[in-house]
Structure to design on (316 residues):
């Protein structure tokens, strides 16, 4: 017997300070009193964006001015199976109003929630809010260790990067351990996450925040590594599905443009990236020949942010 799926949109509102918005569900609705990102059902003939604009006007009295698609979630409740499309909303007009008798709460992504319980389908989304918009991949083989560490320090001081992937396949384990220790020493005080593109056991032993899986490790691992953050590099729908099944927190999808690292691989382009981003249930970073100037474009096409291998080490 087929199960009907209710298509729903939800808006993750951000204020100018970087806080996100939650509202309580009113009496008379399923899960009344639970906290959620506001939104509702997509009506027949509506696009997800049109539904979001209508729902936020009806619930909160605001008119959406700027938003970008983000991630999708499939969730089975006792009363319904829902397919949620989340949008990040960064500009609106009007004053937030509790038009359905809701309560409101604002939180920074890295702070503990002051409200509970959170609607089950919305809970996993909160983790994605902790991911930064700019993700850097080390390239010490090209720029040198001394230059890389100095550039990283400048990038952190400029708040230009929020997550660093250590990717140095040419280093011995001893060299990699020393380099990782230097990266962590600079990143940890700045609140910047550090993950290792390598064996999960090494990332755990060195006290890193997580591990990043290349496509070979991704496809070979039967279960998610026991680390706080797990990401993966993906290039197509099959690898993206594998990252989702494994329980990855994010994925790097590319190359969007031609790169030195993958000279023979056909770029996805923004159209190809968008097509895959519409299938994802985890945050995606656009990767491949990008700079921070393209961050708004990447988010327009559904990206969490951008990942850079060379730009940052040259520019910082």
């Amino acid at each position: 017997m087929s199960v009907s799926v209710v298509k729903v949109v939800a808006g993750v509102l951000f204020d100018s300070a970087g806080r996100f918005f939650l509202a309580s569900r009113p009496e008379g609705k399923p899960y009344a009193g639970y906290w959620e990102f506001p939104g509702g059902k997509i009506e027949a003939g509506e696009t997800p964006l049109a539904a979001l604009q209508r729902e936020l006007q009806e619930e909160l009295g605001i008119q959406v001015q700027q938003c970008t698609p983000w991630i999708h979630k499939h969730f089975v409740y006792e009363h319904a199976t829902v397919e949620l499309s989340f949008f990040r909303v960064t500009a609106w007009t009007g004053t937030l109003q509790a038009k359905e008798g809701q309560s409101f709460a604002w939180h920074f992504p890295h702070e503990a929630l002051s409200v509970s319980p959170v609607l089950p389908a919305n809970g996993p989304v909160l983790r994605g809010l902790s991911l930064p918009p700019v993700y850097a991949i080390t390239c010490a083989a090209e720029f040198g260790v001394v230059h890389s560490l100095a550039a990283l320090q400048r990038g952190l001081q400029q708040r230009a990067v929020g997550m660093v992937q250590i990717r140095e396949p040419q280093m011995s384990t001893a060299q990699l351990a020393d380099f990782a220790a230097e990266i962590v020493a600079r990143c940890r005080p700045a609140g910047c996450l550090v993950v290792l593109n390598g064996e999960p056991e090494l990332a755990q032993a060195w006290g890193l925040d997580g591990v990043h899986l290349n496509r070979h490790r991704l496809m070979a691992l039967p279960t998610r590594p026991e680390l706080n953050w797990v990401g993966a590099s993906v290039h197509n729908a099959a690898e993206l599905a594998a990252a989702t099944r494994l329980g990855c927190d994010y994925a790097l999808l590319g190359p969007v443009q031609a790169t030195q690292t993958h000279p023979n691989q056909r770029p996805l382009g923004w159209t190809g990236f968008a097509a895959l981003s519409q299938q994802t249930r985890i945050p995606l970073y656009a990767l491949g020949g990008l700079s921070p100037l393209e961050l708004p474009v990447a988010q327009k096409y559904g990206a969490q942010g951008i990942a850079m291998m060379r730009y940052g080490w040259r520019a910082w």
